[in-house]
Amino acid sequence: MSGLTQTNATTPIADNQIQFNIMDPNNSNNTLVSFNWTKTGATRNSYLGNYNTTTHNWSLDSNDQASLQTSINNALSGYNSTHGTNYSYNISNLNQSQLNNLAVAQFGGSVKLYLNSAIADNAVRVYFRMPNGNNLSTYYDWTKSGANRGNLVGYQNGSNWSFYGSDQSDIQGKLATALAGTGYGLNYNNNNTLNQDQINAIASGHYGSSVTISVVPVNQTVSSTIRPAGFDNRKLLTATTENPLSDVVPIPDDLKADLPAAAKDASGNNTSSALLAKLVPGDLTNLQQKLNDQTNGPKVQTAIKALNKELSDAASDKYISTGLNMSYSGVQGATISQPTLLNYAANNNLGTLKSPTFKQLNIGTGNVVTNDDSHVEFTANSTDTNVTFGNPVNIYYKISDAQKN
């Protein structure tokens, strides 16, 4: 004898019962109604139906099928009556796809029954189940030319299932494309390869129906912006494409009296740019004479050193960024390793940075000269710690004294 027992999801399932969960055709995560169906004499783990090795389809005993048909519609009728006139779910006849799905149910367990949906006769719909048990809103209908509703997608191969011909390669590629951008993949390595459990689920499915496979979060590659900073002061360096540097720094007082009238900028101010651009050999000779003067020499020498330091300081917080890639990529959320980042910097032209070139007043042997090709170098020394990919990360640079290129 077979019969219907209306139930909820927490009702225990007896050894001679199967719990049928009728799923919402518009939302595969939503169960419309559940009921326990009983068959006298059935034993736990035995199958409801019978498998035909010739047609590769499952079938139900005619009495069981008739009883189930009635039980299903009784359950749906009860659902419809409590959810208003907009609901009129029913099944006039169980199709082959539904029969295949139900027949593999085992007594003492449960099975999902999917109402008719817009799945083509030659398609199998693949739903993606997240680790939390819910399905992604994304699904994919994989089609095969010549396939008929109710036919198995693959074939049983020992204790597992396999695909025919090149079907696995095609399915893997299509499913990987469908999952792109969802944050989930077929496996943790995100290499677009189905595992055996996923193969079993799809290959044992039937055309015209749906299957569900488990998916996992994939490792998303993101970039972190590299920010150079001074090692001693921890201040960020400024990127520039300007070279040489248009330096504007104050002129030391002890040099102002010896500047030519022409050594002024557009605003009439004495500046380093104006000074070093306008100095002529006669001016350098005058400075040298001052240096040789026992009274004023030390003052002028100190002033020249002060000017040189100001020029060097003006460049020591700037680096030439032309042609540099200031990004570092890795797995989102993973911690950035200091040795790995320093190695990346060394191999990507970030191990040593240079400032724009600038002028210097150098005291030579018997004269004073201007050098137009001095620069400051920045050498990578350490990095931020406990920073994860996707967030900015600082590399700290040791700063050299001014030196010739």
Task: Offer a concise description of the structure.
The chain is of the alpha+beta class and 405 residues long.
What does this structure look like?
It is a single chain. This protein has 9 helices and 23 strands. It has helices at 62-82, 96-103, 167-179, 196-203, 253-256, 272-278, 281-292, 297-315, 338-346, and strands spanning 2-6, 17-24, 27-39, 50-52, 57-59, 110-114, 123-129, 135-143, 155-157, 160-162, 184-185, 210-214, 216-217, 221-230, 238-240, 318-320, 327-331, 352-354, 358-363, 368-375, 377-383, 393-399, 403-404. The strands form 8 sheets. The chain has a 5-stranded mixed β-sheet with strand order 17-14-22-21-18. A hairpin with a 5-residue loop joins strand 7 and strand 8. Helix 7 (281-292) crosses helix 8. The longest helix is centred in the N-terminal third of the chain and has 21 residues, at 62-82. Mean pLDDT is 80; it is low at 1-9.
Share in helix = 10-25%
Rg (C-alpha, Å) = 40 Å
What sort of overall outline do the alpha carbons produce when their principal axes are compared?
rod-shaped
N- and C-termini, Cα separation: 97 Å
Main beta sheet, described? 5 strands, mixed
Name the beta content range: 25-35%
Which stretches of 5+ consecutive residues score pLDDT under 50?
1-9
Q: Can you list the strand order of the major beta sheet?
A: 17-14-22-21-18
DSSP strand tally: 23
Helices, by number, come to 9
Structural class: alpha+beta
What is the residue-averaged pLDDT?
80
